[in-house]
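dude i think i finally got it to work??
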Amino acid sequence: MIKTAYQQELLFTGVVKKGSQGTDVVRVQEWLCLNALRYPKIALITTIDGQFGPATELAVKNFQAVFKLTKTGIVTDALFARLNAPLSVAFQAKSTVKDIRKAVLQLAGVHLNQRSAELQTDEGQNRGPWVRSYCDGNDGPLFKWCVGFVQTVLDQAASERGRTFTAIMPHTLSCDVMARSGIETGRLTKSAVVRKKPKLIRPGDVFLLRNPDNDDWFHMGIITASAGDVIETLEGNTDLKGSSNGTAVFARVRNIQKATIDVFSIEGL
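look at this
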């Protein structure tokens, strides 16, 4: 795989407990907060400040209780592996189908099922281990991670077949760069054509939202199904409002007649 930044998110240098501080504590606090999405009835959310105080200790004990472990409040390698299991599962998943388009959908679904999401802190949006994994080690307000999510899934599908996703697109975090490469290679079909010929849309292809007044592409995702004027998608960095700078991976429905949606073909991936 090309998108290997996730491996850094799985590293843990040792035991942390009350009184500990530093990077490992930050990682523990991040994963406690992210696991709150999986276990919403359990009090896991705590301040992400790198200081292992009584609040973090209690959150750890609550997480241990989920798995019926002894509530020590101490994070070992084994417990950290449980904390970051969603990311480990998603990034190391293998498809069980031969068709690469179906593999793309299957792998994207794994990320959805593992509740891939960002963290929002006092420093802004687009933070946390999922974002850094999608964005080659980067996070923060500037890193709108929809492209990183798409390319990660395509990377997984291609690499397990001995190929690279860069054979059909550049390695980038920019919607504009992705779209312009599609224009140059003939892979991008503009919205006007897609609206007239929706049958051109195929599951596994990538949709790109574009400002209708200019060639400014600002969001993308993976098309999972299409029916007439409607497409179903899996996309990162969106939300219930369909934002291009949201919080998580969501399954959505979009109307190709109401939004300016271009389509990037993954044929030959």
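The chain has a mean pLDDT of 96.
im so relieved honestly
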